[in-house]
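Student: I would love a firmer grasp of how sequence relates to backbone shape in proteins. Thank you; the sequence and its tokens follow:
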Amino acid sequence: MTVAIIPARGGSKRIPGKNRRDFCGAPMLSYPIKAALASGCIDRVIVSTDDDAIAEVARHFGAEVPFMRPKDLSDDYTGTTAVIRHALKWLKSHGELPEYACCLYATTPLLQPQDLCQALLLLKKSTRHFVFSAARYSFPIQRALLQTEDGSVAPYDPASIGKRSQDLPETFHDAGQFYWGRSNSWLSGEHRMFSESASMYLLPDHRVQDIDTPADWRRAELLYQLLHNDSDHEDLHPHR
């Protein structure tokens, strides 16, 4: 059995109420729920929340809310892993522990069902403990710049600042969409996500957007609209 667990607490200071806020015509939380249900490779979709209004939205769109998240796991300092472990421990205590569990972030309107399935297949075929979504940095991070206290500029890595981009190794970042893992690996705490215990599932840059600020939100809306306009265009002209 497989399960998707979506952490979605009520408190959000930078974008108040962002998990329930309307995004292109539907609550933000509805997008990962619908993607997980449409994937065909996830048996259960569970939302972990401390908020009754979020729980209501989750159930409306087909997710389960079999428990309410305790307050000590709902503050600004609680990590995602602790929330996933709590959910899996609850499932285990009810004799329902799945073999594979996927953490889905609530603010992922660009999430695609097929990526969930392909990443799960990658995990099943490997000996790794986790597979997570990632993307390439569009610019060599080795050539990053720092601003000094007096306002001047300094290279972050002086040894790399003069090198050509093609002479520097590619670098990647967490795409913040999904994190597949074997349930026992989530629970044991012996393996870390961003380590040799994991593999990356690469996403194209145009389907990756963190949503932490109002500007991020607007950029995500524009990306979503562009992607769906392209899809509509393909449907109208399937033979071109």
Q: What stands out?
A: The chain has six helices and ten strands. The CA atoms of residues 150 and 156 lie 16 Å apart.
